[in-house]
Amino acid sequence: MTVALEARPGRSRPSLVGHNLTMASGIGLGVSMLWFSLLVLIPLAAVMVTASSGGWAEFWRSITNDQTAAAIRLTVTAAAVVTLANIVTGTAIAWVLVRDRFPGKGLLELVIDIPFALPTIVAGLVLLSLYGNDSPLGLHLANTEWSIYLAFLFVTLPFVVRMVQPVLEELDLEVEEAAASLGASRATIFRRVVLPSLAPAIAAGAALSFARAVGEYGSLVLLSGNLPFESEVTSVRILSAIENDNQAAATSIAAVLLVISLLVIVALDVLQRRVARRG
Predict the structure, then answer these.
(1) CB within 8 A of 145, min separation 6: which ones?
(2) Are 60 and 183 in contact (CB under 8 A)?
(3) pLDDT tens-digit profile of 239-267?
(4) What region does 104 belong to: left with phi over 0, alpha with psi -120 to 50, or beta?
(5) Contact, 122 vs 154, CB < 8 A?
(6) What does the alpha-carbon distance between residue 72 and residue 214 come to, in Å, rounded to a whole number?
(7) pLDDT above 90 as % of the chain
(8) From CA 213, how far away is CA 191, in angstroms rounded?
(9) Which of 263, 257, 147 is nearest to 207 (CA)?
């Protein structure tokens, strides 16, 4: 016996296409966009406008100044190297925290978040006491280029770990076990099964790490010495320009950092999408 199912008159399925916003949703969207504009869009637009206020020649002169160019190169290079290091070490730390059981695991979980909670000037003081001229470890890195890398590594440590860890916890171990039962090696399982799932989280953590490093200032005040052409970063150059009442130069440097950060974020997004598709 065949039973025909007919839709009841007067009742229709809700459409997901062309659905109008309710009054509450519209108000929420408007408040969100206003808040986002006040905190992000308008300040960024103001930076770009101020940077271009003196014309292209003045903008180019500000960012190609020998001292400024050296600071930009050092900052971007150190941030990129530290980000690559965080991708590897952060993923490894997250893997250990999720997949392994060992004494002191809770303490390690707590220690990883210290750079989030510690004021950056305090972080600089801690690093200076360990790696300054009176270093108990015998490592005298203060006032050198290596102090930049050290400070960046410290302040960006948690980003990749905390982005990857929850994703790794949600992965289904049965999929990995099935791949292993079919003869896949551990390297193949990680590359074809685990990595595509982790790629978006790794990319997000890497983007946050790079952006955090590029704008770092507090931990470098005591540690780097801010020596021109050796340990001076762009945040210090921006502060120097403002102190010298040269706001156009300060915003020009900030605009360069903004463009570089956006390009890195786009590149990481494209890379993680390709890794996810190939998986």
Answers:
(1) 74, 78, 230, 231
(2) no
(3) 888 888 888 888 889 899 888 988 988 88
(4) left
(5) no
(6) 9
(7) 25
(8) 28
(9) 263
pLDDT digits (tens, 9 = 90+) for 24-73: 888 888 899 999 888 888 888 888 888 877 778 888 888 888 999 999 99
Q: Is the distance from CB of 275 to CB of 197 less than 8 angstroms?
A: no
Contact between 168 and 98 under an 8 Å Cβ cutoff? The reply is: yes
User: 151, 165, 147: which is closest to 108 by C-alpha?
Assistant: 165
Q: Sign of dihedral through CA atoms 180, 184, 190, 192?
A: negative
Instruction: Write down how long the chain is.
Output: 279
| Rounded CA separation 6/4 (Å) | 6
pLDDT tens sequence across 145-198: 999 999 999 999 999 999 999 999 888 878 777 878 888 888 888 888 888 888
Q: Is 255 helix (H, G, I), strand (E, B) or coil?
A: helix
- What would the pLDDT profile of 121-147 be if each residue is shown by its tens digit? 888 888 888 888 888 888 888 888 999
Q: Are 34 and 28 in contact (CB under 8 A)?
A: no
DSSP string spanning 63-82?
Answer: HHSHHHHHHHHHHHHHHHHH
238 burial type by CB count under 10 A (0-12 exposed, 13-18 middle, 19+ buried): buried
Per-residue pLDDT band at 278 (split at 50, 70, 90): low
DSSP per-residue letters across 174-198: HHHHHHHHTT--HHHHIIIIIHHHH
Contact 209, 215 (CB under 8 A): no
DSSP 10-60: T--PPP-SSPPPPHHHHHHHHHHHHHHIIIIIHHHHHHHHHHTTTHHHHHH
Contacts for 233 with CB less than 8 Å, ≥ 6 apart: 71, 74, 75, 78, 148, 216, 217, 220, 224, 226
